[in-house]
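I hope you will forgive my troubling you with a question about protein structure. The matter concerns a single protein, recorded as an amino acid sequence and a row of backbone structure tokens. Please examine both parts with care and let me know of anything in them that strikes you as inconsistent. Here, with my thanks, is the record as I have it:
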Amino acid sequence: MYEFLILNALVNGIIIGVLYSLIGCSLNVLYGVLRVVNFAHGEFIIVGSFFGYVLFTTLGIHPLLSVPIAAIVFFVVGYGLYYVLLPRLAQADDPETSSFLMMYGVSLMLGAGMLMIFEADTRTLDFRFSPMSIHIGTLYISTARLVALGVNLVVVGLLTWFLYFTLYGKAFRAVIMNREAVQIIGINIHRISAAAFGLAAGLAGITGVMISLVFPAFSPFSGPDYTLIGFIVIVLGGLGHPIGAIVGGIIFGLTEQLSIVFLPQAMAPIVGFSILILVVFMHPRGLFGKKLLR
């Protein structure tokens, strides 16, 4: 019996962990390039969930078709939002603290906006794949979760390719490593920063659509939970290092799912935080530190 539960927990832990990795990757790109602690990231993700929900319920657009639409729309909005919110913060005495306070305000505004439009009711994306689950031996895997895993792996793979094998991606990594040196050699830091904000927003939109498929419900109040998960993942993997977030997300997803097997469900977050504290004590820069991107 325990073998069956452990196997299911491992599979679901990897699937959910890859989804958490996507949250961590987008937060890491944003912090690494802009040094902005985005406390509104969870709200961006839930806006993405509602975006997919509205496209499906009003226009009948398949959730998988909503993924590229969300990526494009959120990228454009994020790119423009950078120029509205962030350039003037560079003139502040403490830009990081100022950005923290500003993004916290943005999170409150987004949460209030979703509450006003969609009210406090929990929403569910009433979409079913056929078949609903796949049977492999004693293992039953939700088709929606398998599809989400495939989409997330493709997105993470494309992000890795972008960061390591494209000129723009290498510019991102250069800014993450040494922002001042990049400006000295003539790279337009504002254009890179706006693209990073747009990329993080686009990834948040994709994540939101995937969350509406993987988890049974979401509401305007769900944003802070995903913001917290994102910060746990990036601290585990290494702050400012997008690829380290992949391993951090999978570790946290596996820990969460395996804890549910052996402990009461309410204990799962405690175990996750315990691992986080242990990693911070043993390796303050995260599991990978700066060496991963060099």
Summary: Strands lie at 133-136, 139-142. Residues 149 and 267 are 25 Å apart (CA to CA).
